[in-house]
């Protein structure tokens, strides 16, 4: 059953959490393999004729996966045990090879933190993380912070960032916290950087929508 709330589609599922976890392991392995393929596609130096042969085999694998597929995006699924899974999400999706993926952890003192490894697929300026990617990760983390443990829905209203220094590809750390709240507005602050230094500071107004 799919329930449409505001702009989002949430699908109720009868899958028990144990089965969700089992399936997640299966897809984690596939997604990790595809992520490796993305990185290898960028960095491979094998001769051109081998590239053509790999292309044919990748197309065949894609056809095999497409033989049975959803009519649209994955959406957010949830069961009666309170487990939800958004495996298509561009930042945290366990079946999305574009997602690093980012795993969210509790931040001491409140809010959330995360550590991700950003490789060649996230490059903007040479050797550096694309500025849009850093804001993508920050937006997601800050949205989750604003939701206060999924207690409420929040959507990004306004997001601003200050790029204080370039972010090299490699390990990246993020943290975000609620600065204050005014009615339906949740003011969230966050930082992103290397394990040694903050490179981006972000401020966001996350809104609890009128329809929520
Ligand atoms: C929902 C809303 C943002 C606001 O609509 P309504 O509910 O009708 O709001 P209403 O007009 O009743 O004003 C209430 C109060 O709020 C204020 N205010 C209003 N707007 C803004 C503003 N832009 N910026 C700042 N403040 C604003 C307004 O002045 C008023 O303040 P007041 O009480 O007078 O002091 C709507 O414009 C929308 O859907 N925009 C698209 C959002 C979208 O697509 N975002 C991207 C996808 S989410 C994502 O990717 C991240 C994510 C990841 C993971 C997890 C979670 C998140």
From TrEMBL:
Protein name: Acyl-coenzyme A thioesterase PaaI-like protein
PANTHER family attached to this UniProt entry: THIOESTERASE DOMAIN-CONTAINING PROTEIN, UPF0644 PROTEIN PB2B4.06
InterPro entries reported for this sequence: HotDog_dom_sf, PTE-AB_protein, Thioestr_dom
Classification of source organism: Bacteria, Bacillati, Actinomycetota, Actinomycetes, Propionibacteriales
Species of provenance: Nocardioides marinus
Domain Thioesterase: 127-192
Domain of life the protein comes from: Bacteria
């Amino acid at each position: 059953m799919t329930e449409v709330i505001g702009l989002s589609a949430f699908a109720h599922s009868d899958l028990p959490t144990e089965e969700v976890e089992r399936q997640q392991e299966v897809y984690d392995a596939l997604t990790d393999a595809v992520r490796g393929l993305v990185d290898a596609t960028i960095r491979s130096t094998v001769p051109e004729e081998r590239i053509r042969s790999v292309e044919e085999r990748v197309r065949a694998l894609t056809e095999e996966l497409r033989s049975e597929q959803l009519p649209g995006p994955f959406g957010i699924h949830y069961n009666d045990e309170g487990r939800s899974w958004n495996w298509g999400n561009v930042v945290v999706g366990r079946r999305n090879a574009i997602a690093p993926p980012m795993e969210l952890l509790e931040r001491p003192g409140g809010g959330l933190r995360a550590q991700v490894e950003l490789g060649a697929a996230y490059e903007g300026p040479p050797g550096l993380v694309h500025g849009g990617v850093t804001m993508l990760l920050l937006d997601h983390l800050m949205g989750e912070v604003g939701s206060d443990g999924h207690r409420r829905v929040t959507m990004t209203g306004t997001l601003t960032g200050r790029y204080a220094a370039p972010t090299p590809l490699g390990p990246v750390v993020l943290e975000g916290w609620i600065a204050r709240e005014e009615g339906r507005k949740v003011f969230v602050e966050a930082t992103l950087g290397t394990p040694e230094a903050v490179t981006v500071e972000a401020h966001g107004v996350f809104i609890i929508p009128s329809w929520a």
